[in-house]
Amino acid sequence: MEVSEKRIEEIIHSYQPDRRYALAIMQDMQREFQYVPREGMEALAEELQCPVSSLYAMATFYKALSLVPKGKHIIKCCDGTACHIRGASTLIDGIRRELKIGPGETTQDGMFSLETVNCLGSCALAPVLVVDDVYYGKVTLEKLKEIIQGVKEGGAE
Amino acid sequence: MIEITINGKKCTCEKGEFLLDVARRNGFYIPTLCHHPAISGQACCRVCLVEVVEKGRSKIVVSCVYPVERPCEVYTDSERVKEDRAVVLMLLKERAPESDVIDALCKAYGAADGSRFAAIDGEKCIMCGLCAGACAKLGTGAISTVLRGTAKKISTPYDEPSKDCVGCLSCAYICPTKAITFKDDGQTREVWGRTFEIVHCRECGAPVGTREEIALAARRAGEEPEELCPTCRKKKMTDIMAHTYGIV
Amino acid sequence: MKKQILICCGTGCRANGSMNVVEAFRSEIEKNSADADVIPQIKTTGCNGFCENGPIVKIMPDNLVYYKVKPKDVPEILEKSVLEDQEIPRLMYKDNEGNRVRSQEENPFYAHQQKLALRHIGKIDPENIEDYLELGGYEALKKALQMTPDEVITEVEASGLRGRGGAGFPAGRKWRTAASYDNFPKYVACNGDEGDPGAFMDRSILEGDPHAVIEGLAIAAIAIGAEEGFFYIRDEYDLAVKHVKKALEDAEARGIIGESVMGSSKRLHLSVVRGGGAFVCGESTALMASIEGRVGEPRAKYIRSVQKGLWDQPTVLNNVETLANIPLIIRDGGKKFAEIGTETSTGTKVFALVGKVKRTGLVEVPMGTSLRHLIFDIGGGIIGDRPFKAVQTGGPSGGCIPESMLDLKVDFDSLAKYGAMMGSGGMIVMDDRSCMVEVARYYTNFLCEESCGKCTPCREGLRRMLEILTDICEGRGREGDIELLERIGHAVQDASLCSLGKSAPNPILTTIKYFRDEYEAHIREKRCPAGVCKNLTRFEIDEAKCIGCDMCAKGCPAGAISGEKKMPHRIDPSKCISCGSCREACRFDAVKAVGRGQEA
Predict the structure, then answer these.
(1) What is the pLDDT of residues A108-135, one digit of tens each?
(2) Could you list the residue range(s) of the whole structural domain that residue C257 is in?
(3) What is the number of structural domains in chain B?
(4) Are the Cβ atoms of A57 and B145 closer than 8 angstroms?
(5) Mean pLDDT, residues A62-90 taken together
(6) Between chains, do C448 and B149 touch, taking CB under 8 Å as contact?
(7) Minimal Cβ distance to A119: which of C199, C392, C557
(8) What is the pTM of this model?
(9) ipTM confidence score
């Protein structure tokens, strides 16, 4: 969704003006805009009467928050221990070859972002890949190509 | 009152008093970096670590925030303290190879050999966070810790000159390793990517501070900003008092 | 006559497509059973723990369980097993002897388990409070309201229940201390920030039986005199967040919590806080900083959080699994709970048994069960019957345990003696193709990113240990590296601020202790015995074993393998990227890892 002052105000005012909601409010912004926009952080600082730097510290500390817009499709590659010993790094290398992006990066056309996550709690299906919140288990390099192709052609199934 | 021993010497202290204060009061110097009376509870540099034996159990604690709750034996220079401190100092030295303060500590207390590692080029900052603490408390919260883990650093939001900064230099003065660079030629002051104009005392011409910091101080005191140095301000107050009491 | 179709809809089964199976049953029932004698009821349940074989479909009261069910199987299941009483053998689980088994109880994966914390999961619909109430839900809370706080705490003390999050602190003692302060307000909180990679016990409980955890937290609040509480749940656990929120709404609507707790004069407000994606927030003081809306940095814990926790007020923080046990303890008495397990570690423990083991999933067994029993009897041994090498327990804070110690009984104290720990229950099995140096490097890298970065030993010590481990894995290891790792490791254990740092060297120190020869092979011979470290490994095909099935070539991302069908294949070393996909793909053990050092 396009960043707008109105939406930012709506998100901020859906909570009480209390410091304890700072993380939740920024998470809502992240969900809405795929990142925490600067104007959002500044408006929140104004509302909570706190320095922008204290929110910036949080936004860079918590992995769930991002300062730059993420791609349209988000690929989360699990690199938890179970996935790791069942070949997660081979998948990450595979994505690097297919899409020319590494963990934390977004393709130039803004279509894909790759994130590694520490464990999705689906270890029995290792290695696991999540594309736009759809889970894929026991992913091989061959299956990876199919998944990416599928997303390119019409979004995740 | 609680009775403890430090390196064998009997010492007394109040319950809850911090070990560092008790030790220093009794003549045992323990080195510190991130400890500052105005910014409490940092406990992150770890050079003030000591060994505490309580109920027959030995543990390493950092003395700056360890409250004495019951009688115990404290050792500020045991083999275990020396070994742990040597490694911590080595890690600090590889982190901030340009810092004279760290270098001196390593020489005084002995550091482990860190030649295996690639030191961080040109670095002086040990990431103790005192500057961010001082800025939040004395200044305006213009800087903070950013990121986490080994990537953690101190910066302004978005690494840009911060509009909140008033150029008060609290951050630079409190830094134990003098890692924050600034320039001050009496006319202008540069810090965190911004240049501030220095205001001079309208009576004697001595530099007072940046316009922004004077405004901040006045706002906090609920007064109008006045371009007076501390000496002339005092003089002005004295004149007013003298006038009030009819001395002149 | 009624029949229930229980369809597992935990995260694992959803990934395997269980929602499509639910849909298929819905539409098929609508089409076919309007005038049948049997009335089928669909129930979506939480995680059954055997995710690898999902989607799992259970037909009750017949106690007939089907695995790996696809939407196309649904018409047949409905026709034969729901409307009639026939079995479909191909969907039933095959046990060790190759027999098809009907019920969960006959399945070797479940047969050895004893379910307390997981007691309702797979039997109830977690989004339906009626299901929970039907099984006696919230009766323990009702009972606790009729007891004095002291009686409640005494019962928890009698149970011997210790914190399931890893540290094993006695829950009763924690409550007793918090209750002793008359400094109000007080808070309760549930630690659902399950961050250990390879662990999903808490996710499963929050998803599958949220009311049990709510009931546990409500009892804790009554016992210490708190009126507000929080569920801090990992950001990645969408379904868990959804189910807990729904459960809280339903419980409030029924007057179980809220302005009056079940009609009493007590108030209790509970809410969900989503974690921000930071492993360190599993540490209690960091978690509390995060709930307060700050950066999740721990503080020195010389003053404990039961005294000064959230907003500096007395706070009880318990783990999800700990809380799930509370209603049972209040309902049946602490003494009964203490009869299970060992003397100092009572009750059961849920483990996430994963990695290179045949049957992976969630298992709940009495404390004191041996590692061998867990891995070989329940887990069925190693995939492909390869040699067992190590089991990693306790996540990044834990250690790697070698084969010689497989008969250790797992509880809070026994593993700690050997430098490992039971931790929150992650159990990752490794075979001879897992490199122990690389495993240590993996955890250290994980912690470098996840450390909050506040204190010197953790931040800088991990940075330097990672530097050494990376060098060793990439062929630049030097003499003296092992000793230096040990030296830094011990200082980091001693001098770090919080438990993350204090336990961070465990994976390194235990792998050095039990697999020193692997480190030495990397450093001295520039060889990775497991064939994992790419710079030190090259793959070759044993022509005598290769049958030319072409499986390796198909999976090769670099196009480095060639050969005609039914003829031995070859790997072109100039193209090979040493990823090991071919070795995993080969069913004839024809692909061999060869050290690069041997080339020179």
Answers:
(1) 988 999 999 887 777 778 899 999 888 8
(2) 129-338
(3) 2
(4) yes
(5) 89
(6) yes
(7) C199
(8) 0.92
(9) 0.93
